[in-house]
Design brief:
heterodimer, A: 312 residues, mainly alpha, ABC transporter involved in vitamin B12 uptake, BtuC, 2 domains, two-stranded antiparallel sheet, 14 helices, 2 strands, B: 257 residues, alpha/beta, Rossmann fold, six-stranded mixed beta sheet, four-stranded antiparallel beta sheet, 9 helices, globular
């Protein structure tokens, strides 16, 4: 992780040596280096670490809660909700700097709808949660596509950048907004491991061991949503991290959520920062979402093929 | 002392009453067998006792206190449960599984097992003869061993009421007896109350002190096993003619047609 961090600070269109990095961090040495490190690379590195760990843990939480290895942080309609808001803002050329916050709101709001739809008395029905997420996603997706078809060419690309997910030119503003909620949600998330372990034993046994299904599902859902919404507000809809990282950590350290959760956050951070590094090594920078999907999809297929991932 | 008492108890699912007007008492150190044909509401009754589904009418008293005022956690400190369907495909070790039995005593932020927890866990593992397998993964052990691992989980909960739903279903004849003997030893040595659903009437008659027979969600017989089990009673519940003989292992039932 430290190596990736250092590399990530060093590489880019201008190479900065290790020594110069340290100088720049302590606000010494060449001014141009200081600016590059402090205004461009450091915030970007932090963004990738925050977003990666959020998506990793959020995926692990949701896969555990829904007992479904195909669950990703975007399953509960988050992608559709924030995607729609993003496209809406961009296509009408509204306040661009407001997009992160709006995307965040869109994500939270949509998940809230999905959760309310899945409520039956004082129970959360898991099937309804998943299907509700799918239904909302296709509804919002349709509206989003309609909007996209109407806008001018230049704006489509701006929108695509968000929809695919990119960390390009993410600055302190986005980080300041999302860092505190992300860190606190990561912290709370670590305490949910026992509830996830209990849920994996089956609903009835988990209740007979003193767990409240409604409360733990709401809590897990809330933490996962907060994490994802914050991640989206920084980086847009970066795919595959939240889906694959939990599988990968399960592969490495087994099924105990006490280890899966922190590991997923860690591997998520590591994966996204390396993917971001890769994305800007080429002659033209590509959105990091493309890199994660390009590398992630084959890895996912291998995991599925080996069937070593999540088993019910 | 009455550990668990049901009074005019009704429950079911979403506007559908399944269990009607059940009255029964389970005393300390007593084994209650729940019998009845498929779909008679046996599992529903047990879910009600565990607080998984809510009461529609009537009351359940846990140690003379209305169960309505118990949180899930408090119930879990008093009643443990071995469900019929076990998740046998977990990649956690036997010991990690059994350790989850200590959850009812842990706060949200507490993760460390204290000395008392470890003692209870090891005791439970020893009791079901699984101590040597404690580091094996659940997904790697046999069905019978898995059953015992989950029993150890229930024992680690350290309760004085144990509810078992069809515990012998997945076991061969030898392990059926072995498993129920473990439960009997447990009942006697720790003086706990046991409630089982058993499909096999001979096993039910052999092990239960008391029996409640359900049909269409209603109790059609409740009392001591010896007094209750006779040809007419079985015919009434299962609609089948049987012969019953007394054996050294209690009454045994032979269907005749």
């Amino acid at each position: 992780m430290i190596i990736i961090s250092l590399l990530s600070l060093a590489k880019g269109s201008v190479y900065i040596s290790n020594q110069d990095i340290w100088l720049a961090i302590f606000k010494q040495g060449e001014e141009i280096n200081q600016t590059i490190i402090w205004e461009l690379r450091l915030p970007r590195l932090l963004a990738s670490l925050l977003v990666g760990s959020s998506l990793g843990m959020s995926g692990a939480l949701l896969q555990g809660m829904l007992k479904n290895g195909l669950a990703s942080p975007y399953l509960l309609g988050i992608s559709a909700g924030s995607g729609l808001v993003i496209v809406f803002f961009i296509s009408f050329g509204l306040l661009q700097s407001f997009i992160p916050f709006a995307a965040w709101l869109g994500a939270i709001f949509t998940t809230l709808i999905v959760f309310i739809l899945s409520k039956d008395g004082n129970k959360i029905v898991v099937e309804r949660l998943v299907l509700g997420g799918v239904a909302i996603s296709s509804l919002f997706g349709a509206i989003q596509a309609t909007l996209l078809l109407q806008v001018e060419d230049g704006r489509i690309q701006a929108a695509l950048n968000w929809l695919i997910g990119s960390l390009n030119s993410r600055g302190w503003q986005e980080i300041n907004f999302a860092a505190l909620p992300i860190l606190s949600a990561l912290f709370i998330g670590l305490f949910l491991s026992r509830q996830l372990n209990l849920l994996s034993l089956g609903d009835e046994l988990s209740v007979s061991l003193g767990n409240s299904l409604f409360r733990s599902r709401c809590l897990i859902g809330a933490v996962a949503t907060l994490l994802t919404a914050c991640a989206v507000s920084i980086g847009g809809l970066i795919g595959f991290i939240g889906l694959i990282v939990p599988h990968f950590s399960r592969l490495l350290i087994g099924n105990d959520f006490k280890y899966i959760l922190p590991f997923s956050a860690l591997i998520g951070a590591l994966t996204l920062s390396s993917a971001d590094l890769l994305s800007r090594l080429g002659p033209v920078e590509i959105p990091v979402g493309i890199v994660t999907a390009l590398v992630g999809a084959p890895v996912f297929m291998i995991i599925l093929y080996k069937k070593t991932g999540y088993k019910k | 002392m009455a550990k668990l008492k049901l009074e005019n108890y009704y429950t079911g699912y979403k506007n559908k009453i399944v269990i009607k007007n059940i009255n029964l008492v389970v005393n300390q150190g007593e084994w209650l067998g729940v019998i009845g044909p498929n779909g008679s509401g046996k599992s529903t009754l047990i879910k009600g006792m565990l607080g998984i589904i809510k009461s529609f009418k009537g009351n359940i008293y846990l140690k003379d206190k209305d169960i309505k005022f118990f949180t899930n956690k408090r119930i879990a400190q008093n009643i443990s449960f071995l469900p019929q369907q076990l998740n046998t495909n977990l990649n956690i070790t036997v010991k990690e599984l059994v350790a989850l039995g200590r959850s009812p005593y842990k706060e949200f932020w507490e993760f460390d097992l204290n000395k008392n927890d470890l003692e209870k866990i090891n005791q439970s593992l020893n009791f079901v003869d699984m101590y040597d397998l404690k580091d094996k993964l659940i997904s790697q052990i046999s069905g019978g061993q898995c059953q015992r691992a989950y029993l150890a989980l229930a024992l680690a909960q350290d309760t004085d009421i144990l509810i078992l739903d069809e515990p012998t279903n997945a076991l061969d004849l030898k392990y059926q007896i072995k498993f129920l003997e473990i439960i009997r030893t447990l009942k006697v040595s720790r003086n706990i109350s046991v409630i089982t659903i058993l499909h096999d009437l001979n096993l039910a008659a052999r092990y239960s002190d008391k029996i409640v027979a359900l049909k269409d969600g209603e109790s059609i017989g409740y009392g001591s096993t010896n007094e209750l089990i006779n040809e007419k009673f079985i015919k009434n519940i299962f609609d089948i003619d049987v012969l019953i003989s007394d054996t050294p292992y209690g009454k045994q039932i032979y269907p005749t047609n």
